[in-house]
Inverse folding.
């Protein structure tokens, strides 16, 4: 089984993240008082990588956290299988910080909606921005990303697979037909 | 990400632990970690059960368990309908079944049932067609108490595997002892039940991983956790005990008895305590006591149980 197309190679993933890091610095006029919070699963390594880049570029250690949105999903009463709750870890005060929420793929926007609610329950950040590696369209809510690695027009019958070294032993973004994955 | 199917089919109710695999029980304990984190936040609430109504049906007095369940359900954003029998038409002779029919027409999504009769929660499960959590039925079972005990022990030792848990007191009348004797061995621990012979039904020795003894020193020797049960003073009338003093002299959990236990063994009590009867104040308030921890953990465990029973039902 092979993907329909490779959207980003390892080098392209790296460059996209470097560009996002630059955009973050530009928009926030530096990296002071920022925090990077990754959404489970692949948003977490992406947030850590962005933190490393910010540290190299600006010499600022930006704290990172992880967010599980299971208890905030809007489809909990409908799901057939019980979702596993994973760890939320935000070991710093959100007050007066601008938080950059990091996820791998932006699709319907429902995960981001849940993440915003989860985040605000943890404290009141000075602002929240959104960074994603891939924006594949098909939004069901009025949500947009502030930083996008790759805009990718897709069909609903397609699946975007983000693979990362930390979770999948390789960096790549692939486009698959849903049928091929069944 | 969904729960692996290796956990086995999900039981619709938590009446006892009969249908619950160790994996599923482990998942309840794991998720309680997250619930404890929620309780530590500025906003101690998550929207997971929004729109659902949970009925706290208490046909027997219990301030602690009822409060704990009520808060747990609220912290998960469920609406809570509290039905306390003393103040209701049950005292006017309405049957359990009639009461249930009335509650059902309020569109209740789940029941938490406390009743003095063993099997009451099973009855509610059968008639209501909704998920039921047994909050104590007669002397039969009190599963969320056992789960919070298991969780408290696990918090201390990381796992229950190979741990020895001594439970002392009125075993005969204790649903807490029965539920723990059912649960803890499923999670890999050994349970020793200990009390005067009149309060120690020999049949319990047939349960896997459970042994009985009337000798408190033997029960506590090498134990990682020592649990004292509440002694109901009214048992005196039943002729089960010579005198309370005699009981306390032999079976009280105190510093002397705890010297027999593993060093650092923790002290548990399901509450409310009869201080200086089944447990000394030194033991109850000492550094080994986890009694207040149990209360805190109880809320998290009940949130986790509600999540496990009410999410992903269709």
């Amino acid at each position: 089984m092979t993907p329909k197309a490779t959207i980003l190679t390892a080098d392209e993933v790296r460059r996209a993240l470097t560009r996002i890091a630059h955009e973050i610095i530009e928009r926030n006029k530096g990296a002071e008082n920022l925090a990077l919070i990754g959404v489970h699963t692949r948003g977490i390594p992406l947030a850590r990588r962005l933190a490393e880049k910010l540290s190299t570029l600006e010499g600022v250690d930006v704290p990172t956290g992880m967010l599980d949105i299971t208890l905030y999903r809007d489809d909990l009463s409908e799901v057939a299988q019980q979702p596993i709750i994973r760890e939320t870890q935000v070991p710093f005060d959100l007050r007066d910080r601008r938080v950059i929420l990091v996820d791998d793929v932006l699709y319907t926007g429902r995960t981001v909606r849940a993440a915003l609610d989860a985040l605000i329950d943890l404290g009141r950040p000075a602002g929240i921005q959104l960074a994603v590696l891939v924006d594949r369209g098909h939004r069901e809510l009025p949500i947009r990303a502030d930083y996008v690695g790759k805009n990718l027009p897709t069909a609903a019958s397609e699946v975007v697979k983000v693979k990362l070294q930390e979770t999948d032993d390789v960096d790549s973004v692939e486009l698959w037909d849903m049928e091929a994955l069944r | 990400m969904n729960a692996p199917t290796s956990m086995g089919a999900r039981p619709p109710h938590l009446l006892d632990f009969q249908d619950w695999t160790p994996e599923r029980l482990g998942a309840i304990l794991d998720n309680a970690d997250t619930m404890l984190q929620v309780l530590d936040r500025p906003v101690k609430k998550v929207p997971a059960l929004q729109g659902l109504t949970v009925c706290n049906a208490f046909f027997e007095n219990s301030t602690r368990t009822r409060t704990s369940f009520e808060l747990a359900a609220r912290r998960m954003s469920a609406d809570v309908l509290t039905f306390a029998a003393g103040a209701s038409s049950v005292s006017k002779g309405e049957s359990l079944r009639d009461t249930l029919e009335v509650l059902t027409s309020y569109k209740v999504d789940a029941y938490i049932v406390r009743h003095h009769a063993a099997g009451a929660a099973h009855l509610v499960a059968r008639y209501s067609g909704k998920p039921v959590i047994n909050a104590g039925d007669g002397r039969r079972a009190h599963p969320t108490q056992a789960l919070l005990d298991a969780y408290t022990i696990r918090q201390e030792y990381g796992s229950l595997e190979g741990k020895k848990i001594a439970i002392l007191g009125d075993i005969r009348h204790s649903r807490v002892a029965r539920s723990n004797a059912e649960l803890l061995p499923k999670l890999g621990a050994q349970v020793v039940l200990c009390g005067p012979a009149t309060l120690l039904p020999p049949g319990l020795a047939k349960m896997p991983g459970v042994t009985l003894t009337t000798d408190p020193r033997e029960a506590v020797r090498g134990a990682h956790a020592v649990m004292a049960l509440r002694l109901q003073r009214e048992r005196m009338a039943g002729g089960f005990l010579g005198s309370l003093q005699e009981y306390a002299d032999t079976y009280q959990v105190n510093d002397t008895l705890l010297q027999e236990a593993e060093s650092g063994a923790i002290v548990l009590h399901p509450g409310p305590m009869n201080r200086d009867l089944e447990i000394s104040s030194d033991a109850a308030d000492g550094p080994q006591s986890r009694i207040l921890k149990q209360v805190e953990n109880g809320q998290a465990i009940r949130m986790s149980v509600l999540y496990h029973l009410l999410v992903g039902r269709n």
User: Anything to note?
Assistant: The interface with chain B takes residues 40-41, 68, 70-73, 76-88, 117-118, 120-123 of chain A (CB under 8 Å). DSSP finds five helices and eight strands in chain A. The beta strands of chain A are 5-8, 34-39, 64-67, 98-106, 127-135, 147-151, 158-163, 172-177. The longest strand of chain A covers residues 98-106.
